[in-house]
């Protein structure tokens, strides 16, 4: 398949991404700024925080990880736009992953800003980030991985692989719950929430029909595709949710997409089509591998798939993500009768 390449809205921002650099703070258009906030020791390198000017301050979309480096970058970026951290009135969080939600609590402490989340993600905050609740989540992940056939020698390492980044999150309960279709009520902005589950159960995009822009979070990115995985806090068929969400945003009349990573781009519909085609290819590959084996666990299937690098070189955290992404594709195929699962101590997958 010939892959469609989107047109960058800002070539310098695209070139910074391609060159392994962090782009400049940018005035995207009147009343709107882009502030790159670094993500430590991560191939994504930064999250793009969008600053929306209001009559009495600003609102921001996403916040970054809670590190001093990230906080200082956000403060410095706001200063370029002419604002201080105390001018932030609201934090619209696209979803609760650390690079989007982690710094929101610290911003609220400094400014009194409200924090907004979709209810489906708000319900997950305590179990994911409260020290008193996290052991239960890790144990549920361990059981899921065991049923996927993850070897006992690596089970504990993979089950607790995300614990290393919990310190970059300040747990903060949201002040506002934002549902699909809600108007955000930001003066000077006709911003509307679009619920786009898949990457997380409560992922939100925000669209401005008047400005014809879509703040897409991690839902639609210029080059990479977000992780869509089965895990203890996901729904049973997150890939179905994600593909339905892609179809929903594809219908939006926008001229520019403002994602949380990489760079701004044009051609939303064409990019959505490319992402959907990628998942079609992945589903077909998994179905072929299932058909070539006489019953296989998810982990064994994952090790046989095509990844961006050899399986042996993938670090533990990403191996877990690869396994759980494979499981999401298997769940989608199972729901459509294209593969079948035989439950047991290890779930085995067979052709339908």
Descriptive overview:
The protein is an alpha/beta fold and 352 residues long. It contains twelve helices and 13 strands. A hairpin with a 5-residue loop joins strand 12 and strand 13 (348-351). The chain is globular. The two termini are 27 Å apart.
Helix and strand layout, with pairings?
Elements (H helix, E strand, L loop, with lengths): L10 H8 L7 E4 L2 E7 L7 E9 L2 E5 L6 H13 L7 E5 L5 H4 L2 H8 L2 E4 L1 H4 L2 H5 L4 H14 L4 H8 L16 E2 L14 E4 L8 E5 L4 E5 L20 H13 L5 E4 L8 H25 L5 H6 L12 H20 L3 E4 L5 E4 L1
Parallel strand pairs: 4-5, 5-6, 6-7, 10-11
Antiparallel strand pairs: 1-2, 2-3, 3-4, 8-9, 9-10, 12-13
Helix pairs in contact: 7-8, 8-12, 9-10, 10-12
**Secondary structure tally: strands:** 13
Mean pLDDT: 95
Sheet/helix structural class = alpha/beta
Strand and helix order: HEEEEHEHHEHHHHEEEEHEHHHEE
SS field, number of helical segments: 12
Range of helix content = 25-40%
Question: What does the largest sheet look like?
Answer: 7 strands, mixed
**Percent of residues in beta strands:** 15-25%
Principal-axis shape equals globular
Radius of gyration: 20 Å
Give the strand line-up of the largest sheet.
1-2-3-4-5-6-7
**Could you name the ranges where pLDDT drops below 50 across 5 or more consecutive residues?**
none
Give the end-to-end Cα distance, rounded to a whole number of Å.
27 Å
